[in-house]
């Protein structure tokens, strides 16, 4: 009886044609399509050609013996179940075969029923291994899907916070986007990339979120702020940090920007009075970008904005006092190269645009 085309392939490897025929007969009657090889080298050739489920292999063969064949099968065709056929004298080797991945072994002279039972067990073991792997892979896929979903939810919550602030302080809208983009330009000029760059863009976008807690009369005041009002508005870095800390746990550099973008290089900034390199680099970058945008934009309390050249000159003047000289250098270099240009006053929300 010949097996149907969809039947699994069984490769029988033995240097004695007569013994192969016995096996072929047995395995065919169990529903396999049988292919044959007289040694390990031929067996590997067959394995290249056919998708084999099961190999029954003799141990002692010319050219390449069963032990070496098994090693190669484990390396190159790990999904194949291998059952070794062995003489009593070789039982020790057969046991070693188990150690390197044979599913089982059968001792010659064998009873056909015994071969059948061993083969059935080997196939069951193979099925479990494959199922286990498929399950693991589908789990990994689900974990990745959930991570993507979490990322989306995270961006959505950041977006709704940003939108809440924009409703309260229309100026912030364009400002946050521009600070994000200016920071990104300076950071790239300083050789930053990858995750750090992504966090700098995110941090720039949300750096003023704490202004949600600032009174609107102060936020939109057209005149100069009183010292009390100034103090009130300057609570926003810590307020923003407190709001975002639970959300930005995985993006600490973005969170640093929120808290420390009003620190000064000379240590006279807020909220922590940090100075020099103890201010996180990402915050030193955002501080310069923030000031650059403030100078070149209309603010409620400032009648007109500066040109790019004037703003760059002003930033240069404050190098070493308000700003980190290396950040200033990068800002100037990117302006000279034309990478830093004044951005339009309105723009698409970067979260909505999928850029953050
Ligand atoms: Fe700010």
Supply the CATH superfamily name of the largest domain.
Hypothetical protein af1432
The structural class is: alpha/beta
**Helix proportion range:** 55-70%
Counted up, domains total 2
Shape: rod-shaped
Percent of residues in beta strands? 5-15%
Output the radius of gyration.
35 Å
Strand arrangement within the widest β-sheet reads 2-1-3-4-5
Ligands bound to this protein structure: fe (ii) ion
CATH class of the largest domain: Mainly Alpha
Number of helices: 14
Poorly predicted tracts of residues: 347-356
pLDDT averaged residue by residue: 88
Report how far apart the termini are. Answer: 65 Å
Strand/helix succession: EHEHEHEHEHHHHHHHHHH
What is the CATH topology assignment of the largest domain? Hypothetical protein af1432
> How would you sum up the major sheet?
5 strands, parallel
How many strand units? 5
